[in-house]
Structures are given as structure tokens and as C-alpha cells.
Amino acid sequence: MRQKAFACAGFALLLGILAFPVLAQSRSINYETYIVDSFDGSEDTDWSWTAAGSKFITDGYPVVKYFDGMPNAMRVMQTDEDGNYQVLGIQFKFNRQGDNWVDIIPMAAAEGGDGESPYEIPFRGVVSRIDMWVWGAGYYYQLEVLLRDCYGRVHALPMGTLNYEGWRNLSVNVPTNLPQTSRYLGDEHNMRFVAFRIRTSPTERVDDFYVFFDQLKVLTDTYSPSYDGFEFAGADFSDDSGSDSGSGENAETQPAPAEEEEAGI
């Protein structure tokens, strides 16, 4: 009996090994790394950056400002010596310790051209990893990235603690159970970046803190499947330039019910 059980287990294992390459090749993958924001000045993007603090933020804070410079680990890879390399700096203070937080938010021109409003940056493809260079000053603060999934829910992913000195590359893997793309054809609601959030530890000092960001980038799968009829995905039914059938000017005129009765039908 035991030998028979071992034989069945071995056969199942062999079948799994043989089937794995077929399953692995059932979907193509096209990984790509791209820079979401280099923080080299707001003119390089369609958005700018601002910050907002929680209840006990000190008046006049947070302050957002660009500074010249970059991490040394990035500097050795730059070929343009005259490039305008900058980083984004944020300074804030709170009036008391506790569960305080600051959100660093992208802003873009509001509809109608009336000022600016919060802007959620859309990601390309299915994102696997998010990373960024962050300058820390030894404070026990937590850095999170806020993401909105394709169904509208906001998720906070921890990028790390800022209790170190100088530049460090912080990253977070996006959970596979976080829905990034809709399964319905033509639904273009992808995952979006909402904000960075810095949380203070309840016992950490909050009288003066500043941090710097550089080169926000993501690792994403940009594979786009091809299928018969892909050109109809996202079709605009409000466009009058297309051909109509059964309505509008191209529809065949039918006699009204009253006219049919008068004709003896």
C-alpha cells in the first residue's frame, strides 16, 4: 500500500513538472522600469507637489521646495554634467507629539483652468515594485505610499522607516492581490498614485523635521495582449462620425401605428 502511495505521489510530481512550462508560458510578460518623477523641477511633468499636515501641524508648515543635488549612487551614472539635477525637499513641524502625519500630494491644473487640484498619477501596466531615493535624518518616522486600485479603493503600502542618515533607496513590492486592472475590455481604470504619507512615532520629537526625495520609479509589466477585435475596446458611442444602424439618419423609416391602422393593416 505504501509503495502504491509513493508511486502515485511520484506520478503527480512528474505531471506537475511537465505541465509547469506550459502554464508558465500561458501569459507573456514584458517587464519595464520607468521613472515616474525625477524631481528635477515641476516643468518636467504635468504635475507639481504640495504637502498637507494633520491636526497639530505648526502654522506655516509643511514647506515644499526644490534643491540642487542628487545621491552619489546616482551621480556616477549621469552623463550630462550640465544637467539640472534636483531633489524635492519637505520640512514640517507639529505642536505636540502623537499620531501625526504629512501627505505629499501631486497637484495639476483644475478643470476650467481655475487653480490646481489634487492629481492622481496613473501607472502604466501592472506594477510589481515601487522604489525611490529618500534622505533620512534619524527620526523614527514611517514612510508610506498611498495607491488607488482600479476599483477606487485606497491602499497604504509601507516603504520603510526614516531612522537612518543620508540617502537610501527605499522600495515596496505591490501585493499581487491588489487589483490594478479591470477584467472588462475597454475599462481603462488602472492603479493610480495618490500620495506619500509620513507618520510620526508617538514618542518621537516633532519640533523640526525635513526629508528629501529623488527619482521615483516603478517596475511594471507592460504586456498588452492582442486579440481579434481589439480595436473595438473602448469604442466611443457618443461619436456621431461612426455609422449607425437601427437609429438616427441611417435608420429605415417605419410607419407609425396610427398610419398602419388607416392603411387597413
UniProtKB/TrEMBL annotation:
Region listing for Disordered, in residue ranges: 234-265
Biased amino acid composition, Low complexity: 243-257
GO annotation terms (biological process): bacterial-type flagellum-dependent cell motility
Signal sequence, renumbered to the chain: 1-24
Location of this chain's protein in the cell: Periplasmic flagellum
UniProt superkingdom: Bacteria
One Pfam family this sequence matches: FlaA
Annotated GO CC locations: outer membrane-bounded periplasmic space; periplasmic flagellum
Keywords for this protein: Bacterial flagellum, Periplasm, Signal
Protein name: Flagellar filament outer layer protein FlaA
Protein's organism: Candidatus Avitreponema avistercoris
Lineage: Bacteria, Pseudomonadati, Spirochaetota, Spirochaetia, Spirochaetales
